[in-house]
Amino acid sequence: MSEVLKTLILGxxxxxxxxxxxxxxxxxxxxLLAGRQPGGQLTITSDVENYPGFPDGxxxxxxxxxxxxxxxxxxxxxxxxxxxxVDLRKRPFTVVTDADRTYRCxxxxxxxxxxxxYLGLPNERALQGKGVSACATCDGFxxxxxxxxxxxxxxxxxxxxxxxxxFAAKVHLLVRRDQMRASxxxxxxxxxxxxxxxxxxxxxxxxxxAGAGKVTGLELVDTRSGARRRVPADGLFLAIGHKPxxxxxxxxxxxxxxxxxxxxxxxxxxxxPGVFACGDVQDSYYRQAITAAGTGCMAAIEAERWLxxxx
Length: 311
Ligand code: NDP
What we know:
The protein is built from six helices and 19 strands. It is an alpha/beta fold.
């Protein structure tokens, strides 16, 4: 493409589409590259009940279709391509995709998101949304009076385990070592909660559905002795960390020690003028659809103002 775009957006989660809605309405004629997981992480959750404006909840994939429609209504061009290479060293910036196309742009909005880490168990992916989840805030509500297991020993695992006690009858927290990585206060909250049982030195080696189409049990392993046992379970929540999708920008944009893109505090501007980052790719703390959408809006407004200042 020889034309230089005013705004190119990478990623199609709530941040990317919200940036697109605002950029399109500001007449920046944005092009959005949807990436390998069109719709982002919300497409792997079921009901979304905490996004304001949907009093009866909405299915994650359906919500993302609505985001896309709204972005396209104002002229966003959504392309099903995945960015494979970027060059941010000179303007216009260039992006090469898996369709072997090269895009040049004056401003780049990065909303490539983050991916929850999974254990890699044989049935894990097949049972996603059917008892296996990496987001208690999204899916906890569906486990009223159920028995659930949370994997992890960090702050996220403690937070998710505590949150799940609002619904579940019993929450088991599987910690692979004899200590947790979580902050003391989060650990205390978990240890003091009568609904949570911490199972030390234990990992999961399998999750199964016994033909029921949803999780019915787990195989656990004692990480010291290697002894395995099977337990009945309705849910398996993974809280072993997230990985921001930032490999593409290595060596070009500053990142924190976990690989999240750094932005000016309270803004979406990166160190490179004209490059903005929004959503989970720069947020390891909130990681919610509504906060991602909020920063997407910020990125588009900042891009528009930055372009204006160039003239
Ligand atoms: P962390 O990387 O801090 O913790 C990951 C946990 O998962 C560790 O206990 C780790 O075990 C365990 N783990 C990793 N891989 C496996 C595996 N294959 N099998 C079993 N267990 C595994 O990630 P978090 O998402 O918890 O936190 C990320 C950041 O966000 C942290 O800085 C945290 O402080 C912050 N955060 C803060 C919150 C708050 O303040 N309210 C809430 C949530 C997160 P091991 O220790 O053995 O490596």
